[in-house]
What we know:
Blueprint: H1 9-21, E1 26-32, H2 42-50, E2 55-60, H3 67-78, E3 83-87, H4 93-96, H5 99-106, E4 117-123, H6 129-137, E5 155-160, E6 163-167, H7 179-187, H8 198-212, H9 214-221, H10 230-241, H11 252-265, H12 276-284, H13 291-294
Helix pairs in contact: 7-8, 8-9, 8-10, 8-11, 10-11
Amino acid sequence: MAIQWFPGHMTSARKKAAETMALxxxxxxxxxxxxPEASSNPMINELRLARQRPCLKILNKAxxxxxAATKAWLAYYNSQKGVKAVALSCKKATDxxxxxxxxxxxxPHRGTSIKPLRMMIMGIPNVGKSTLMNALLKxxxxxxxxxxxxxxxxxxxxxxxxxxxxxxxxMMWPRIAHPSDGLMLAASHAIGRNAVIDEEVATFLADTxxxxxxxxxxxRYSCNVDGMDGVGVIEAIAQRRGFRLKGSAPDLEKxxxxxxxxxxxxxxxxxxxxxxESRRAMLQGLIATPPDEAADHSLPDA
Length: 302
């Protein structure tokens, strides 16, 4: 299943972001720590590189990700010029408090009352940008929701007398080149449900977790995973939880939603859907892909 989701307001959001980039010193890109590259909008990278702006990459929801995978991603990003990466949870005040100093280190020529440090928060929908904005300002100024694309317009606010913040709407890109990226994004709830089939997304998620964290599925759903595939996991959840339709058929949709929610909430365990190595292997498997299709989310050797 090829997933594509690009609501109309995102075209204007991209145009506005390009204009704001000219007046920005540091880009704060919020990523999902469980799928950093899949959750990185290539348009953000294009916009900031065009203006030669440094970037603080925040691997948010690090408390839900595999620590070993997160460590590998931090090493990868921190090897890049003009990039500082940090793993944290935007819901933890002590984590968020470190961010202004990190941004200032990327633009030390700013940060005075005469030349305030201008920071722009960017990222895909439902990755935690508004939560970060509220935490930095220590008050609720941005609407937070469990559905993607809650924020639909920019807002600029002063953090203090020498720092300003711009919160931007979550932006997707017009075409998701790699099907696995669309499925990872859908599993992590960055894409509206009207664009996906929950059972197919949950089956992909189950196959991925079975391949790398089978014990987590066995523990969560009290089942023997030997020889099991993703479809089998969804069926097992329906059986174990007693999810039935009329006529006693298993309610696979409800079982699929249960697994997706368990993953999103962290109830399934600390899971990363990609690592730098798996990303590189995936891209190397696309050698036959036309150049214009393989361009998005390239992963050069670190």
